[in-house]
Amino acid sequence: LIGCGVTTGFGAVTNTARIKVGSTVAVIGCGGIGLSAINGAAIAGAGRIIAVDIKGSKLNLAKHFGATDVVNAAETDPVEAVKEMTSGGVEYSFEALGLKKTAEQAFQMLRTSGMATVIGMVPENEVIEISGADLLSDKVLRGSNMGSNAFRVDMPRFVEFYLDGKLKLDEMISRRISLDQINEAFDEMKQGEIARSVIVFN
Question: What is the pLDDT of residues 156-170, one digit of tens each?
Answer without folding.
Answer: 999 999 999 999 998
